Amino acid sequence: MKNNLAIQTNSSEQEDSSLSVAYKKTTHADNVVSELEITTTETINPASRQRGSKKKTEKFYRQLVPVKIYDELPVLEDAIRPYIKGYKTVYLLEMISIIAWHIRKDDGVARLQMDFLKKQVPQGDKYMKGLISNKIVIRTGQPIKGDKCYEYSFTPKYQSKYIEVPLVDMKLVRRLDLLYSKIERENTKKIWGHSRQKEFLKQITIDAGFNEFLKSRWTGNINQYNNIKASATRLLRKRYFCTIDDTSRRFHSNVTNMSKDLRPFLRVNGQPLVNIDIKNSQPYLSTLLLTHPEKVVGFVIDDKLDRLLKTIKIPKSRDIAHYIDLVTSGGIYEYLMAEFSKKGLIMDRKETKKQVLRILFARNREPKDEINLQARSIFMKIFPNVHQVFFRIRGPMREKKYLNSHNKCVTFRRFAILLQRIESKLVLDVIMKRVYKELPGVFVLTIHDSILTVNDREVVDSIFKIMEEELEKFVGFTPTIKIEGFCEGN
Is the Cα torsion angle 97, 98, 102, 107 positive or negative in sign? Predict the structure, then answer.
């Protein structure tokens, strides 16, 4: 049942008092917005009517809070309130919500800078200190200015499914709107030349059916449930995110950070979307290093790798030809899955892909993980010359020039970064520009090595053809491209 909690007051003191009473007198079951109604609603500001001015709409947002924290909120507040002058319940919940929004699906932590937190929540450092000292939140890691920040996560006691709480403090809403508008303007500068993707992103909606899917599919996996819920709610809340990182030059957005399980529920004008994906794109692009390494010199980010690619001699061997044949046909993971199985390493395709990418891009040392050690040994026996070329491209284990600010070697990452930069150039600057020219106005959004578009046969076929032609022209081999989600007749 939807809770229309809309408290309108004339002073911040009254507003805070009303909020505290509302939160304390209700349980999460009473105060949680129905999942099917995760939308940004609007209300008319009564003060504007009294002044006889034009109507002004204010947005009501939702905060995401682990249900176990929400159920114990009165007790937690009693422990934290005495230490914060001008304490507000809504500020505490927003701090919790920020952590919930930013927890990463890969490692389960939120990397947050304190300056960023304080810009969102007044006295944010004090609220965070209260959450940590009361063992609601765990803080780990060691911050390094300009390089690394603290990592935050909820303690095991409070790890639970997220619920949505209405954010009705309009002063905080306006503060957040101003902050995120500024961030959006700064990110717009970073995506110069690719701003059309941002406009397309704003056209996306989410089919309400995803809620039933979420309830039925992820009943036991809390982390996956929360990740999908946070991704969906962020999009429905119209909190758009677009940027291009300086290292890989990849385009990042709400959709690139979204779980694949949510993509089938994305809609544009009520219609489902289709994903056109370059199959095993990183291994596919790695064939350039085995055929024409000098061709990718322009994508290199350090001088030593530049010189290596200009002078390296690639042997003509059967294992290199075999590797190229497998990755261009899209069967590298299936082949290695079978080879691993012969040696007693039983794993599915997802795990095989994970192990292969670790073999290709991990640092040049003996793996500590026993499974990866065995997998690497098998790979080296099947593809000895491939391994030797990639070993040289990854670079030495430690070299002073390539140590980062906290003395950790980053040289080995240059191989993965190189392939990502090649991919970004081909997808963003070659393929997408041709799509814009040949299919003007058609919805297209990149997800790194794939393109999301409308469920239209003519459009899908045209984009497929463009991707195939441009990739073959640059790489020298026809790629395997997979179409996901196409429904004939839609």
Answer: negative
| Other C-beta atoms lying within 10 Å of the C-beta of residue 247 | 10
**Cβ neighbours of residue 110 closer than 8 Å, sequence gap 6 or more:** 98, 99, 100, 101, 102, 103, 104, 151, 152, 153
pTM over 0.85: no
Q: How many CA atoms lie within 13 A of 201 on its CB side?
A: 25
User: What six digits make up the tokens of 240?
Assistant: 């758009």
List the domain boundaries for the chain.
12-226, 286-414
Does the structure show a pLDDT above 50 at 44? no
Q: Of 361, 353, 358, give the one whose Cα is nearest residue 391.
A: 361
Contact by Cβ (8 Å): 275, 484:
yes
Task: Identify the residue with better confidence: 261 or 158.
Answer: 158
* pLDDT band of 181, cuts 50, 70, 90: confident
- CA dist 440 → 258, 433, 453 (Å): 26, 10, 13
Provide the pairing of β-strand 57-66 with 41-44: antiparallel
Q: Is 237:251 a contact under the CB 8 Å cutoff?
A: no
CA distances (Å), 53 to each of 48, 170, 248, in order? 5, 19, 50
Contact indicator for 198, 240 with CB cutoff of 8 Å: yes
Residue 356 above 80 pLDDT?
Answer: yes
H or E segment at 18? helix 12-25
Query: Which phi and psi (to 5°) does residue 398 adopt?
Result: -135, 135
